[in-house]
From TrEMBL:
Residues 190-290 form the Fe2OG dioxygenase domain. One of its GO terms (molecular function) is L-ascorbic acid binding. The lineage of its organism: Eukaryota, Viridiplantae, Streptophyta, Embryophyta, Tracheophyta. Keywords: Iron, Metal-binding, Oxidoreductase, Vitamin C. This is Fe2OG dioxygenase domain-containing protein.
Length: 339
Protein backbone atom coordinates (compact mmCIF):
# COMPACT_ATOMS: atom_id res chain seq x y z
CA UNK A 1 0.00 0.00 0.00
CA UNK A 2 1.25 3.45 -0.90
CA UNK A 3 1.26 5.93 1.91
CA UNK A 4 2.70 9.36 2.50
CA UNK A 5 3.72 8.33 6.01
CA UNK A 6 5.88 5.47 4.69
CA UNK A 7 7.25 7.68 1.91
CA UNK A 8 8.38 10.28 4.45
CA UNK A 9 9.80 7.73 6.88
CA UNK A 10 11.66 5.62 4.35
CA UNK A 11 13.42 8.40 2.48
CA UNK A 12 14.43 11.11 4.94
CA UNK A 13 12.80 13.27 2.29
CA UNK A 14 14.43 16.54 1.28
CA UNK A 15 12.28 17.12 -1.79
CA UNK A 16 8.82 16.15 -2.98
CA UNK A 17 8.27 13.47 -5.66
CA UNK A 18 6.93 15.09 -8.81
CA UNK A 19 3.58 13.23 -8.72
CA UNK A 20 2.69 15.16 -5.54
CA UNK A 21 3.40 18.63 -6.94
CA UNK A 22 0.19 20.65 -7.34
CA UNK A 23 -0.11 23.53 -9.73
CA UNK A 24 -1.43 26.44 -7.73
CA UNK A 25 -2.36 29.82 -9.06
CA UNK A 26 -1.13 32.82 -7.13
CA UNK A 27 -4.63 33.96 -6.13
CA UNK A 28 -5.12 30.67 -4.35
CA UNK A 29 -2.27 31.40 -1.97
CA UNK A 30 -3.66 34.72 -0.74
CA UNK A 31 -5.21 34.29 2.68
CA UNK A 32 -7.61 36.61 4.45
CA UNK A 33 -6.52 36.67 8.09
CA UNK A 34 -8.98 39.27 9.30
CA UNK A 35 -12.06 37.09 9.69
CA UNK A 36 -12.82 33.95 11.60
CA UNK A 37 -15.85 31.70 11.36
CA UNK A 38 -18.85 32.22 13.70
CA UNK A 39 -19.19 30.47 17.05
CA UNK A 40 -22.34 28.67 18.19
CA UNK A 41 -22.85 27.77 21.85
CA UNK A 42 -24.42 24.31 22.01
CA UNK A 43 -25.50 24.79 25.64
CA UNK A 44 -27.63 27.76 24.56
CA UNK A 45 -29.12 25.78 21.69
CA UNK A 46 -30.28 23.13 24.13
CA UNK A 47 -31.19 25.59 26.90
CA UNK A 48 -34.53 25.35 28.70
CA UNK A 49 -34.73 29.15 28.56
CA UNK A 50 -36.82 29.85 25.41
CA UNK A 51 -35.21 33.25 24.76
CA UNK A 52 -31.72 31.84 24.97
CA UNK A 53 -32.66 28.97 22.68
CA UNK A 54 -34.34 31.13 20.09
CA UNK A 55 -31.35 33.51 19.94
CA UNK A 56 -29.04 30.51 19.47
CA UNK A 57 -31.31 29.13 16.70
CA UNK A 58 -31.21 32.47 14.94
CA UNK A 59 -27.40 32.52 15.16
CA UNK A 60 -27.27 28.95 13.88
CA UNK A 61 -29.43 29.80 10.86
CA UNK A 62 -27.30 32.88 10.12
CA UNK A 63 -24.10 30.82 10.35
CA UNK A 64 -25.48 28.16 7.96
CA UNK A 65 -26.67 30.77 5.48
CA UNK A 66 -23.75 33.20 5.57
CA UNK A 67 -20.82 30.86 6.23
CA UNK A 68 -21.74 27.19 5.97
CA UNK A 69 -19.09 26.65 8.66
CA UNK A 70 -19.04 27.39 12.37
CA UNK A 71 -17.31 26.48 15.63
CA UNK A 72 -19.39 24.66 18.19
CA UNK A 73 -18.50 25.26 21.83
CA UNK A 74 -19.91 23.75 25.06
CA UNK A 75 -20.95 20.64 23.10
CA UNK A 76 -20.64 18.34 26.11
CA UNK A 77 -18.23 15.88 24.49
CA UNK A 78 -15.35 15.25 26.90
CA UNK A 79 -11.81 16.31 26.13
CA UNK A 80 -10.68 12.87 27.28
CA UNK A 81 -12.70 11.16 24.57
CA UNK A 82 -11.33 13.51 21.93
CA UNK A 83 -7.75 12.93 23.16
CA UNK A 84 -8.26 9.16 23.18
CA UNK A 85 -9.58 9.29 19.65
CA UNK A 86 -6.59 11.29 18.45
CA UNK A 87 -4.21 8.90 20.25
CA UNK A 88 -5.99 5.89 18.76
CA UNK A 89 -5.79 7.45 15.30
CA UNK A 90 -2.07 8.05 15.64
CA UNK A 91 -1.74 4.45 16.88
CA UNK A 92 -3.60 3.19 13.83
CA UNK A 93 -1.29 4.96 11.37
CA UNK A 94 1.76 3.88 13.42
CA UNK A 95 0.91 0.22 12.79
CA UNK A 96 3.00 -1.72 10.27
CA UNK A 97 2.12 -1.58 6.58
CA UNK A 98 1.01 -5.25 6.82
CA UNK A 99 -1.35 -4.52 9.69
CA UNK A 100 -2.88 -1.59 7.85
CA UNK A 101 -3.18 -3.53 4.61
CA UNK A 102 -5.78 -5.71 6.30
CA UNK A 103 -8.09 -2.66 6.23
CA UNK A 104 -7.14 -1.35 2.80
CA UNK A 105 -10.52 -2.12 1.17
CA UNK A 106 -10.96 -1.96 -2.58
CA UNK A 107 -14.33 -0.55 -3.41
CA UNK A 108 -16.00 2.74 -2.65
CA UNK A 109 -18.58 1.34 -0.26
CA UNK A 110 -16.28 -1.05 1.57
CA UNK A 111 -17.21 -0.63 5.23
CA UNK A 112 -13.60 0.08 6.21
CA UNK A 113 -11.06 1.56 3.88
CA UNK A 114 -7.63 2.96 4.47
CA UNK A 115 -5.45 4.50 1.83
CA UNK A 116 -3.74 7.60 0.59
CA UNK A 117 -4.53 10.78 -1.40
CA UNK A 118 -8.27 11.11 -2.28
CA UNK A 119 -8.99 8.36 -4.79
CA UNK A 120 -5.79 7.07 -6.38
CA UNK A 121 -7.83 5.65 -9.27
CA UNK A 122 -8.74 9.16 -10.45
CA UNK A 123 -6.25 11.57 -8.84
CA UNK A 124 -3.91 13.12 -11.42
CA UNK A 125 -1.81 14.58 -8.62
CA UNK A 126 -1.40 12.75 -5.33
CA UNK A 127 -2.32 14.55 -2.13
CA UNK A 128 -0.20 14.64 1.01
CA UNK A 129 -2.72 12.71 3.03
CA UNK A 130 -3.30 9.19 4.31
CA UNK A 131 -6.75 8.28 5.53
CA UNK A 132 -8.94 5.78 7.32
CA UNK A 133 -12.63 5.75 6.46
CA UNK A 134 -15.30 3.68 8.24
CA UNK A 135 -19.05 3.46 7.76
CA UNK A 136 -20.17 3.63 11.38
CA UNK A 137 -23.97 3.90 11.04
CA UNK A 138 -26.54 2.34 10.60
CA UNK A 139 -24.09 -0.60 10.83
CA UNK A 140 -21.01 -0.06 12.88
CA UNK A 141 -17.65 -0.89 11.29
CA UNK A 142 -14.20 -0.03 12.60
CA UNK A 143 -10.74 -1.64 12.60
CA UNK A 144 -10.04 -4.24 15.26
CA UNK A 145 -6.56 -2.75 15.86
CA UNK A 146 -4.89 -1.07 17.69
CA UNK A 147 -6.51 -2.32 20.92
CA UNK A 148 -9.32 -0.11 22.17
CA UNK A 149 -9.56 2.04 19.03
CA UNK A 150 -12.77 0.43 17.82
CA UNK A 151 -14.55 1.08 21.13
CA UNK A 152 -13.45 4.72 21.14
CA UNK A 153 -14.71 5.22 17.58
CA UNK A 154 -18.02 3.66 18.57
CA UNK A 155 -18.51 5.96 21.55
CA UNK A 156 -17.43 9.00 19.58
CA UNK A 157 -19.78 8.15 16.71
CA UNK A 158 -22.71 7.72 19.08
CA UNK A 159 -22.06 11.01 20.84
CA UNK A 160 -21.56 12.85 17.61
CA UNK A 161 -24.96 11.57 16.39
CA UNK A 162 -26.50 13.11 19.50
CA UNK A 163 -24.83 16.47 18.90
CA UNK A 164 -25.74 16.46 15.22
CA UNK A 165 -29.33 15.42 16.06
CA UNK A 166 -29.72 18.56 18.19
CA UNK A 167 -28.11 20.74 15.53
CA UNK A 168 -30.51 19.38 12.91
CA UNK A 169 -33.44 20.23 15.19
CA UNK A 170 -32.12 23.76 15.54
CA UNK A 171 -31.61 23.99 11.78
CA UNK A 172 -35.17 22.80 11.09
CA UNK A 173 -36.40 25.51 13.44
CA UNK A 174 -34.24 28.12 11.77
CA UNK A 175 -35.85 27.17 8.44
CA UNK A 176 -39.29 27.86 9.87
CA UNK A 177 -40.49 24.24 10.03
CA UNK A 178 -41.11 22.01 13.03
CA UNK A 179 -38.01 20.80 14.82
CA UNK A 180 -38.15 17.18 13.64
CA UNK A 181 -38.71 18.12 10.02
CA UNK A 182 -35.20 17.16 8.78
CA UNK A 183 -35.15 14.07 11.02
CA UNK A 184 -38.34 12.77 9.45
CA UNK A 185 -37.72 13.77 5.88
CA UNK A 186 -34.14 12.46 5.83
CA UNK A 187 -34.77 9.51 8.16
CA UNK A 188 -31.86 10.70 10.27
CA UNK A 189 -32.30 7.94 12.89
CA UNK A 190 -31.34 5.36 10.25
CA UNK A 191 -28.98 7.75 8.48
CA UNK A 192 -25.50 7.07 7.24
CA UNK A 193 -22.50 8.22 9.21
CA UNK A 194 -19.02 8.09 7.72
CA UNK A 195 -16.02 8.49 9.99
CA UNK A 196 -12.76 9.69 8.42
CA UNK A 197 -9.32 10.22 9.91
CA UNK A 198 -7.04 12.41 7.80
CA UNK A 199 -3.36 11.95 8.56
CA UNK A 200 -1.04 14.59 7.11
CA UNK A 201 2.68 13.90 7.71
CA UNK A 202 5.07 16.86 7.66
CA UNK A 203 6.27 17.73 4.16
CA UNK A 204 9.71 19.16 3.26
CA UNK A 205 8.10 21.57 0.75
CA UNK A 206 4.56 22.19 2.02
CA UNK A 207 3.90 24.97 -0.50
CA UNK A 208 4.24 22.53 -3.40
CA UNK A 209 1.61 20.03 -2.26
CA UNK A 210 -1.96 19.89 -0.97
CA UNK A 211 -3.26 17.85 1.95
CA UNK A 212 -6.77 17.91 0.53
CA UNK A 213 -7.64 20.20 -2.39
CA UNK A 214 -10.70 22.46 -2.43
CA UNK A 215 -13.91 20.45 -2.14
CA UNK A 216 -17.30 20.41 -0.48
CA UNK A 217 -18.49 17.59 1.78
CA UNK A 218 -21.35 15.26 1.00
CA UNK A 219 -24.08 14.77 3.60
CA UNK A 220 -26.11 17.09 5.80
CA UNK A 221 -23.61 18.05 8.49
CA UNK A 222 -19.94 17.23 9.08
CA UNK A 223 -18.44 17.41 12.52
CA UNK A 224 -14.70 17.99 12.36
CA UNK A 225 -11.98 18.09 15.00
CA UNK A 226 -8.21 18.24 14.75
CA UNK A 227 -5.08 17.90 16.83
CA UNK A 228 -3.54 21.20 17.85
CA UNK A 229 -2.12 21.79 14.37
CA UNK A 230 -3.79 24.22 11.96
CA UNK A 231 -4.24 23.67 8.23
CA UNK A 232 -7.93 24.00 7.38
CA UNK A 233 -8.93 26.88 5.11
CA UNK A 234 -12.42 27.74 3.98
CA UNK A 235 -13.75 29.89 1.20
CA UNK A 236 -15.91 32.84 2.19
CA UNK A 237 -17.01 35.63 -0.16
CA UNK A 238 -14.30 34.63 -2.62
CA UNK A 239 -11.50 34.70 -0.03
CA UNK A 240 -9.58 31.84 1.54
CA UNK A 241 -9.77 32.05 5.32
CA UNK A 242 -7.45 30.04 7.58
CA UNK A 243 -9.47 28.56 10.44
CA UNK A 244 -8.14 29.03 13.98
CA UNK A 245 -10.37 26.81 16.10
CA UNK A 246 -11.05 27.62 19.75
CA UNK A 247 -9.72 24.98 22.16
CA UNK A 248 -11.93 21.90 22.42
CA UNK A 249 -14.46 23.12 19.86
CA UNK A 250 -15.92 21.23 16.93
CA UNK A 251 -15.93 22.65 13.45
CA UNK A 252 -19.27 22.03 11.81
CA UNK A 253 -20.05 22.46 8.16
CA UNK A 254 -23.27 22.16 6.21
CA UNK A 255 -22.79 19.59 3.47
CA UNK A 256 -23.99 19.20 -0.10
CA UNK A 257 -27.22 17.49 0.96
CA UNK A 258 -28.17 20.39 3.20
CA UNK A 259 -27.62 22.69 0.24
CA UNK A 260 -29.77 20.44 -1.98
CA UNK A 261 -32.53 20.11 0.62
CA UNK A 262 -32.69 23.87 1.23
CA UNK A 263 -32.34 24.61 -2.48
CA UNK A 264 -29.19 26.60 -1.88
CA UNK A 265 -30.30 28.64 1.13
CA UNK A 266 -27.73 26.90 3.34
CA UNK A 267 -24.49 26.57 1.40
CA UNK A 268 -22.01 23.74 1.30
CA UNK A 269 -18.76 25.64 1.38
CA UNK A 270 -15.47 24.89 -0.36
CA UNK A 271 -12.65 24.08 1.98
CA UNK A 272 -9.17 22.56 1.76
CA UNK A 273 -6.33 21.37 4.00
CA UNK A 274 -2.72 22.48 3.72
CA UNK A 275 0.25 20.80 5.37
CA UNK A 276 3.36 22.01 7.17
CA UNK A 277 7.03 21.01 7.37
CA UNK A 278 7.23 20.33 11.10
CA UNK A 279 4.58 18.14 12.64
CA UNK A 280 1.90 15.61 11.83
CA UNK A 281 -1.56 17.07 11.47
CA UNK A 282 -4.54 14.86 12.20
CA UNK A 283 -8.13 15.85 11.51
CA UNK A 284 -11.16 13.67 12.15
CA UNK A 285 -14.35 14.30 10.22
CA UNK A 286 -17.64 12.53 10.61
CA UNK A 287 -20.26 13.11 7.91
CA UNK A 288 -23.94 12.64 8.74
CA UNK A 289 -26.39 12.03 5.94
CA UNK A 290 -29.65 10.26 5.16
CA UNK A 291 -29.70 6.48 4.52
CA UNK A 292 -27.68 5.67 1.40
CA UNK A 293 -30.74 4.76 -0.65
CA UNK A 294 -32.77 7.88 0.13
CA UNK A 295 -33.47 10.24 -2.69
CA UNK A 296 -32.49 13.79 -1.84
CA UNK A 297 -34.04 16.76 -3.62
CA UNK A 298 -35.03 20.32 -2.75
CA UNK A 299 -37.91 20.32 -0.23
CA UNK A 300 -40.90 22.17 -1.66
CA UNK A 301 -41.98 23.30 1.82
CA UNK A 302 -38.70 25.15 2.19
CA UNK A 303 -38.83 26.90 -1.18
CA UNK A 304 -40.23 30.38 -1.50
CA UNK A 305 -43.18 30.46 -3.92
CA UNK A 306 -42.19 30.36 -7.61
CA UNK A 307 -38.67 29.32 -6.73
CA UNK A 308 -37.87 26.34 -8.97
CA UNK A 309 -35.69 23.48 -7.69
CA UNK A 310 -32.05 24.17 -8.46
CA UNK A 311 -30.79 20.57 -8.15
CA UNK A 312 -32.02 17.32 -9.58
CA UNK A 313 -33.10 14.45 -7.34
CA UNK A 314 -30.44 11.80 -6.74
CA UNK A 315 -29.92 9.05 -4.17
CA UNK A 316 -27.27 9.67 -1.56
CA UNK A 317 -25.45 6.53 -2.76
CA UNK A 318 -25.34 7.70 -6.39
CA UNK A 319 -24.16 11.10 -5.29
CA UNK A 320 -21.27 9.57 -3.34
CA UNK A 321 -20.38 7.53 -6.38
CA UNK A 322 -20.42 10.66 -8.50
CA UNK A 323 -18.18 12.54 -6.08
CA UNK A 324 -15.67 9.74 -5.61
CA UNK A 325 -15.37 8.84 -9.27
CA UNK A 326 -14.18 12.30 -10.31
CA UNK A 327 -11.06 14.13 -9.36
CA UNK A 328 -11.46 16.55 -6.51
CA UNK A 329 -10.98 19.79 -8.32
CA UNK A 330 -11.92 23.39 -7.85
CA UNK A 331 -15.60 22.77 -8.49
CA UNK A 332 -18.08 21.31 -6.11
CA UNK A 333 -19.67 17.99 -7.05
CA UNK A 334 -22.96 19.89 -6.68
CA UNK A 335 -22.27 21.42 -10.09
CA UNK A 336 -22.89 17.97 -11.57
CA UNK A 337 -26.50 17.93 -10.41
CA UNK A 338 -27.37 21.61 -10.72
CA UNK A 339 -30.36 22.21 -12.99
O1 LIG B 1 -8.19 18.29 7.40
C1 LIG B 1 -9.10 19.10 7.45
O2 LIG B 1 -9.13 20.03 8.25
C2 LIG B 1 -10.25 19.01 6.48
C3 LIG B 1 -10.66 17.61 6.18
C4 LIG B 1 -11.80 17.55 5.21
O3 LIG B 1 -12.17 18.54 4.63
C5 LIG B 1 -12.52 16.30 4.97
O4 LIG B 1 -12.16 15.26 5.55
O5 LIG B 1 -13.48 16.33 4.18
FE1 LIG C 1 -14.07 18.21 3.74
Amino acid sequence: MNSVKELVESNCLKSVPSNYICLKNSEDSILCETQNIPTIDFSKLTSSNPNERSTAIQQLGDACRDWGFFMLINHGMSETLRDELLRGSQGFFDMSVEDKREFAGEKLFDPIKCGTSFNVMVDKTLFWRDYLKCHVHPHFNAPSKPPGFREIIEEYSRKSREVVGELLRGISHSLGVEENYIHKRMNVEMGSQVFVVNFYPPCPKPDLVMGLPAHTDHGLLTLLMQNEVGGLQIQHNGNWIPVHPLPNCFLINTGDHMEILTNGKYKSVMHRAVVNNKVVRISIGIAHGPPLDSIVEPALELLPKDNPPAYRAITYRDYLQLQQSHQLDRNSCLDRIRI
